[in-house]
Amino acid sequence: MNARTQVEAFPLVPGYQPRPAVPAASSPDFIARMAANDAAAAPKRHEIYHAVHKGLRAAMSDAVVRLGRVDLDSITHRAETLAAIADLLQLCREHLEHENNFLHTAMERVVPGSSCTCADDHRHHVKAIDALTSRLDEAAAADPLGRERAFKVLYRLLATFVAENFAHMEIEESANTELLWQHYSDAELLAIEHQIHAHIKPERMMTWLRWILPNVTRQQRAAMMRGMQAGMPPELFAGVLDMVKPHLSAFERAALVVDLA
Ligand SMILES: [Fe+2]
After folding, report:
1. Most exposed of 59, 110, 162, 173 (fewest Cβ within 10 Å)?
2. Structural domain for 222, as ranges
3. Do 221 and 185 lie in a common domain?
4. How far is the CA of 31 from the centre of ligand 1 (A)?
5. What is the CA radius of gyration of the chain?
6. pTM of the model
């Protein structure tokens, strides 16, 4: 037996096979439609998925990078890294629930069957999150001999999950947004968004804000934070500000001071 045949094949994960690649966007003219929505002359429509997906994309990218850089010999760093992955999976579970309960419900109300493709993706994502959770537990429990492999398996599965989610989110931001715009006014979409916010437990809201606020444009951040400044008790807003600042660059912090003055 030569050295090559002694190498164990990279394990396939039962119940977690990457789905066939899907087109990045189901709506071929989505860039044109985005341009139309951004045109100064048009009343700009509310993009209900946009900010939260920016936060999720940032959280997912951060998790993959952190896992790739883990110090396998440090029990503390391993634990911190796995906790960050567990946090991401929790965010993903919550996000799926928000979309199923509120956005898919709104879509089905006006066009029965319109949420089927994304609902199917979500069922696959739930299985993927369960599989990743098991692999995460295995990585945490792995002995020194199996540790490198356990973390590598987790890393590759997480990267695949993130890739699937990026493609999925683009379909939501193009096709689903278009359908929602056809059937709901911005006031109605904002009402749905407020229902989602009301559904988020206060202790989880800070985690969502931690990922969304630093990872949107300066202008989006300023608009969101001015709204919070106006609508929140000052001590609560101070808490949000303290939370977000460490995740901003010096330039972004200075800009935020100007924007909130
Ligand atoms: Fe989704």
Report:
1. 110
2. 217-261
3. no
4. 20
5. 21
6. 0.86
